[in-house]
Amino acid sequence: MRFFLCSIMMIISPIWPLGQNPLPGDPYVIVNKKTNELALIIDNKIEGVYRVATGKSDDLTPEGEFSITVKAVNPYYRKKNIEGGASENPLGARWIGFDARGTDGRIYGIHGTNREESIGHFVSNGCIRMHNDDVVHLFQEIPVGTRVLITKDSRSFEEIAIEHKALIKKQVVPVQ
User: What pathway annotation does it carry (predicted)?
Assistant: First the structure.
């Protein structure tokens, strides 16, 4: 009977773990609107910090913890009917959409840009812009389901990540 119940539980349980993300080692992304930087955390270390552009007013880029729900290569720009990969496409090389403000990942996202000079500035309508090379790298490193924290904080990425359990502070044991 016990074997039967365990078998049923394995069949109906989700592949992605239930509960709070991130789990130790899971990728995690932090965007700091105060510094216009994005940190990628993988395997309990900050893998990279990248310059980004965020909302032209403070309320446009939503703050909170969200999940990546959709990813697209050379995304189509619906608003102005611009094909993916076109030089005039403002979404650049990749789209990494997240579920902010009850949306499905098609409104708010981390994406490339055709205006590389905008990186580091407050210019977007709510999305997070990255250099195309950087967003291609990020796209390869994070799966759908990755948690994204957007904040406006003067602390270091390490301090923010430890608070949100994306980094586990290692204990230093003195040598005797």
Answer: Cell wall biogenesis; peptidoglycan biosynthesis
Kindly give the pairing relationship between strand 28-32 and strand 147-151: parallel
Residues contacting residue 142 through CB under 8 Å, at least 6 positions apart: 27, 29, 40, 68, 96
Q: With helix as H, strand as E and coil as C, how does 138-159 read?
A: HHHHCCCCCEEEEECCCCCHHH
Res 24 pLDDT > 80: no
pLDDT in tens, 132-165: 999 999 999 999 999 999 999 999 999 999 999 9
Q: In this structure, are strands 28-32 and 128-130 parallel, antiparallel, or unpaired?
A: unpaired
Beta strands in 57-100 (DSSP E): 64-73, 94-98
Separation between Cα atoms, residue 153 and residue 158, nearest integer Å? 12
Q: How do residues 27-59 score in pLDDT, each as one tens digit?
A: 999 999 999 999 999 999 999 999 999 999 999
Burial class (CB in 10 A: 0-12, 13-18, 19+), 6: exposed
Q: What are phi and psi of 116, to 5 degrees?
A: -55, -30
Cβ–Cβ < 8 Å for 73, 140? no
Residues annotated as catalytic are: 111, 127
